[in-house]
Design a protein that fits this description.
mainly alpha; Cro/C1-type_HTH; DNA-binding; transcription
Length: 100
């Protein structure tokens, strides 16, 4: 089995799966409702795919939930490809320091 794309994609996938199971629906059910292929649903639920905003909104619409529930408390640190650790607050603080 393939590893998750990232910690963030794993968490989102788990949250989508939990929503689906809570409603008693199959992957096939939500794939049909969201107008997507069932293999994509499975990959998303396993964290093996990074769903686009359109895909998240489509799945949320099919499950009648707010997509924000699936991404709450995710951080940039959960993305392995992120190379910067500087935030906007750090940049602003440094600019103010240099302007003195």
């Amino acid at each position: 089995m393939s590893e998750p794309q990232s910690e963030a994609s794993r968490i989102v996938g788990e949250r989508i799966r939990a929503t689906r199971l809570k409603l008693g629906l199959s992957q096939e059910d939500i794939a049909d409702l969201a107008e997507m292929h069932v293999t994509n649903v499975g990959k998303i639920e396993r964290g093996q795919a990074n769903p686009t905003l359109s895909t998240l909104v489509s799945l949320a619409g099919a499950l009648n939930v707010d997509a924000a529930e699936w991404i709450v408390n995710l951080t940039a640190a959960m993305l392995p490809e992120r190379t910067h650790t500087v935030t906007a607050a750090d940049l602003i603080r440094e600019r103010h320091r240099l302007a003195r």
